Amino acid sequence: MNLQDRFSITSRITLFTGVTATLLCGLLALLIMTAVHLYARDTVTREVAAAGGRVAVQMERGGPAYPLTGGEFRNLQVVDPSGRVVASTPDVRGMPRMARFTPPDGRNSATCVVCGGVSPASDCNIVVAQWAHRAGERWMVYSASPAVPPWVDPRLAGLVGVAAAVMAAAITYLGYRNVRASLRPVTAIRAELDAIDGDCPGRRVPVPATDDEIQGMAESVNRTLGRLDTALRQVQSALQRQRQFVSDASHDLRSPIAAMRAEVEDGLLAPEETSVPELGSVLLPSLDRLQAIVRDLLTLERLDHGMRGERHRLDLTELVAAELRNRRHPAKRVERALQPGVFVLGDGVGLARLLTNLLDNAERHAQTTITVSVRREPGGDCGGRRYPQGAAVLEVVDDGPGVERDKREVVFDRFTRLDTARSKDAGGAGLGLPIARQIAQTHGGSLTIEDSPVGARFVLCLPSAPAGATTAPADDGLSS
Fold first, then answer.
1. For the residues of 53-72, what is the DSSP string, one character each?
2. Local structure of 401: helix, strand or coil
3. Which domains can be identified in the chain, with CATH numbers?
4. Mean pLDDT per 10-residue section of the chain, whose length is 480 residues
């Protein structure tokens, strides 16, 4: 188990801050003591050299006054040319010369740290040797003082050490406080996240006004929660639509089944009054309605799973003309305005199904006339979408009562019928328009209801087929 597993972020950062502060403060204390030691050593060396220099000057002027006197912790010796000590301060009187070194040629003085000699072996002294010229001879003057220890003075060393320790402790404490303050928003964010559940998906974590990484993290968390909230609402909406779909489908399937059961039960109760042809003629409309509902449900299931037929380059005008020719016994007059050469990439079976659903809807609601038009629009907007390569536009207009503006999107919901009784009588189940719109969307287009002087005007917009394109990827589905 490593350090990250054993300690929290606060503990790790505090520990790091403490160790770093201790090392840096210790280094600073060492530098301070080293600087003070060097300054004290240089000061003592200058004082010792000055004391010996005074004796050397006195000798050159006729001789020093005896006995020699030095300051506190200052010792002096005068050595004649033969190497004999002729004068010294009281502390070193009667002792041999304190050092053997002499200034090098060309120099009048030299400094050296001497351990032992006239002092105990464990003691060291700063010794300055200086030449003194007297009667044509060179005498040697030694001046000495105890060497300055590295700690200079115990009180000073203690003061610097305590100051360094206090500084390290203060830095560590400030680092701890800073980490706690920095992580406090994280604690609040975590607490808020723990409190968010399915009962309050709209809650968001607090965003600190710190303009740092934690603020960015909080904003990212809120954006993620927003996406999850949207996804949850979509799932709930989808589940609600699925439940509504199942309920509506069950209701629409139950009606023809109930009708057929009633007819069969009547036939069984009075077989002598019922013939097979008569019973069949009564059951066939209900069977046709049941078959249409099942077919529409299967189509919706395939569209919901993204399955689509193989797409080819086809002439939308020819497809519409062929579908109009194949319609048997149209109940209303159909007027045509078909521009030739309007090409799209699409599934012919799916687009034919879309047109059939639009025509069936128009026939149920038109008074006398249905107008079908096909044209190509240059690059621009169509049905609320933009088509840079141009759009193929199919319009189906009836002269019926039309669709109110606030219900133009409602009619594309599954099992929605604005006139329920008439739709049931005509065999509609409220699935034709949703299927038509979904087919349009799988082709990269749109199906909308636009303004019209009279009746309802359904507008289909599809991307025009690029020049040279012949096929598009297939998925299997509507054409099977």
1. HHHHHHHHTT---SS----T
2. coil
3. 10-154 (3.30.450), 197-305 (1.10.287.130), 309-472 (3.30.565.10)
4. 69 91 95 94 92 87 68 83 88 85 88 79 85 87 90 92 95 92 85 78 81 84 85 80 68 73 78 75 75 69 66 89 82 88 88 88 89 88 82 91 86 68 50 86 89 90 78 45
- What pLDDT is recorded for position 474? 47
Q: Residue 425 has what pLDDT?
A: 45
Cβ atoms within 10 Å, residue 239: 10
E-assigned strands of 104-253? 109-115, 124-134, 137-146
Alpha carbon 245 to its chain's center: 38
Structure tokens at 139: 């005498």
User: pLDDT value at position 461?
Assistant: 92
Specify the residue for token string 């002294």.
125
Q: What are phi and psi of 340, to 5 degrees?
A: -75, 155
How far is it, in rounded angstroms, from Cα 275 to Cα 273? 7
Please tell me the distance from the alpha carbon of residue 30 to that of residue 294, in angstroms, as a whole number.
92
Element (H, E) at 217: helix 213-269
The CA-based dihedral angle spanning residues 4, 10, 14, 17, taken in that order and rounded to the nearest 10 degrees? 80
Q: Where are the beta strands (DSSP E) in 425-480?
A: 446-450, 457-463, 471-472
User: For residue 7, which of 212, 176, 168, 192 has the smallest C-alpha distance?
Assistant: 176
Q: What is the pTM of this model?
A: 0.50
Residue for token pair 């000055």: 50
Distance in angstroms (rounded) separating the CA atoms of residues 402 and 451 = 9
Whether 83 contacts 139, CB under 8 Å: no
The verdict on whether omega for the bond into residue 67 sits within 30 degrees of 0, i.e. cis, is yes
